[in-house]
Amino acid sequence: EAGVTQSPTHLIKTRGQQATLRCSPISGHTSVYWYQQALGLGLQFLLWYDEGEERNRGNFPPRFSGRQFPNYSSELNVNALELEDSALYLCASSLGRTGTVGELFFGEGSRLTVL
Amino acid sequence: AQKITQTQPGMFVQEKEAVTLDCTYDTSDPSYGLFWYKQPSSGEMIFLIYQGSYDQQNATEGRYSLNFQKARKSANLVISASQLGDSAMYFCAMSPGAGSYQLTFGKGTKLSVIP
After folding, report:
1. Which residues of A touch B104 (CB under 8 A)?
2. Is A63 left (phi over 0), alpha (psi -120 to 50) or beta?
3. SS3 string of chain A?
4. Mean per-residue pLDDT for B73-94?
5. Cα–Cα distance for residue pair A87/A21, rounded to 1 Å
6. Does B44 contact A at CB distance below 8 Å?
7. Contact B105 A43 (CB under 8 A)
8. pLDDT tens digit sequence for A81-109
9. Would the CB atoms of B102 and A45 count as touching at under 8 Å?
10. Which residues, in sequence order, are bridge partners of residue A7?
11. CA B64, CA B79: separation in Å to the nearest integer?
């Protein structure tokens, strides 16, 4: 069974540009979570999508946005990129709010570098 | 708001020895979950162990055990018989209870296993 897949693996952008990151959850998982892992800051919750809707977002500005498609894959968009947006962006999926404990599976992440 | 504190930026352990990674937490929610994840250099977050706030017994998963002391708000990870493959970053995380994997992460501990 395929795990959570993320693309691209690496992305280099310049300040002011837009970045789009993609995530495919494990088959049958309906919830997708996005986390940002900046250097030295640990993982910070960004967005949670479940059944196609945004359920919650972390303390990030509106230029961080996303969506979940009918097949439960998800896209994270970062507009007007700033240098501090450079980070590893991790996507995770679960069976949704009825999933059992521990069933949160992460992808290997997309590393965004803003120059 | 929930908060996780990991006070050990780095730890060294001899192969085959046991090691304890510290984690303290703060929350006003009566119901919560505590997680430990391992992050090798590849970037993927690997689930290790979970403890629910109402669980009476400490969680164990193979060589991993969670020393849960509710009154002290600590959830230390104990790895027995360390192996070279255990070298990685380890993150303690907390969820707001059932229904969501909107996790709050600590900053992590880098464990190095010495042959």
Report:
1. 45
2. alpha
3. CCCCEEECCEEEECCCCCEEEEEECCCCCCEEEEEEEECCCEEEEEEEEECCEEEEECCCCCCEEEEECCCCCEEEEECCCCHHHCEEEEEEEECCCCCCCCCEEECCCEEEEEC
4. 96
5. 12
6. yes
7. yes
8. 999 999 999 999 988 665 556 678 899 99
9. yes
10. A22
11. 5
Question: What is the average pLDDT score of chain B?
Answer: 92
The bridge status of strand A104-106 relative to strand A87-94 is antiparallel
Whether A40 has a pLDDT exceeding 80, the answer reads no
Verify whether the Cβ–Cβ distance A41 to B107 is below 8 Å: yes
The candidate with the shortest Cα–Cα distance to A31, out of A85, A103, A84, is A103
Name which of B35, B46, B106 is nearest A42 (Cβ-Cβ).
B106
Cα A102 to Cα A80: distance, rounded to the nearest angstrom: 35
CA distance, residue A115 to nearest chain B CA (Å)? 22
